[in-house]
Amino acid sequence: MDEQMASGAAITPPSGACVVVVPCFNEAKRLQPLRFSEFLAQDHRINFLFVNDGSRDTTLHLLETLRANHPDRIEVLDKQANGGKAEAVRSGILHAMARGDVAVTGFWDADLATPLEVIPQLLAKLLQNPKLEMIFGSRVRLLGHAIHRKPIRHYLGRCFATAVSIVLQLPVYDTQCGAKLLRVSPGLGAILASPFESRWIFDVEIIARFLAFHNKDAAFAEEAIYENPLPRWEDVSGSKVRPTDFFVALFELLKVRRTFRRAPVRP
């Protein structure tokens, strides 16, 4: 079964734990197990759920080895068929939430373009402000911040973020950064109940669904969602995202826009 844990044994994280989902598809060459091990030794509040999304290389073997080294902190969800990053993230978050003792979840890119050390920073801000439901890493180029992106991806990203801001009527700066934490709530379960319609911009769809769930209240969303400028981000080679995918993303944004407009306002 796709939802069967590769480890075969249930793991109970500490009460109120933060479980971060890491989607993995053919990540054997980019995965850095040592960095995860070092991080786990330093921070005992955060656990990881790796979702192997039908990898055809040795990714699953690496994940199993990492899990064996940290059986109380790491879980592996092995999905034998590749369903795409969006579904890997959705199923992983729902799997984490189903345990019942997880307070915060979210997802992080396996290539660690955003360093793991940023997770505690985002988690602290989320927990300190009870109004926050979601906190996103944002790749803002500021003095004192080491944000290294390829120029073409940066400019296409700015164009896309502007389009998203217009569609959602929210001042979003960076929707596609793979560093996001979400507060566990019944609302989050409802938002993720059905598969995403988009494969490339499911991050945008999460925001759109959040808005729809909360009666399209943009003022509320601006208080509940926080974009945190990242101190460091590195464009890692081997990314599966290509500049031409910008046009695919625009097409998917139109689909999200139609769905968002049709979403009923809850009484």
Give the terminus-to-terminus CA distance.
Answer: 39 Å
* Secondary-structure element string: EHEHEHEHEEHEHHHEEH
How many alpha or pi helices?
A: 9
Give the domain tally.
2
Shape verdict: globular
Radius of gyration: 18 Å
Strand arrangement, major sheet: 3-2-1-4-7-5-8
- Computed structural class: alpha/beta
Which stretches are poorly predicted, pLDDT < 50 over at least 5 residues? 1-15
- Strand proportion, as a percent range, falls in 15-25%
* Main sheet overview: 7 strands, mixed
User: Average pLDDT, to the nearest integer?
Assistant: 90
Helix content: 25-40%
Strand tally = 9
What does this structure look like?
The protein is of the alpha/beta class. The chain folds into two domains: 1-112, Spore Coat Polysaccharide Biosynthesis Protein SpsA, Chain A (Alpha-Beta Complex); 113-260, no CATH class. The chain is built from nine helices and nine strands. The strands form two sheets. It has a seven-stranded mixed beta sheet, with helices on both faces. It has a two-stranded parallel ribbon with strand order 6-9. Helix 1 links the parallel strand 1 (17-24) and strand 2. Helix 5 (151-168) runs parallel beside helix 9 (245-262) and helix 7 (202-213) packs parallel to helix 9 (245-262). The protein is globular and about 45 Å long. The model is unreliable at 1-15 (pLDDT under 50).
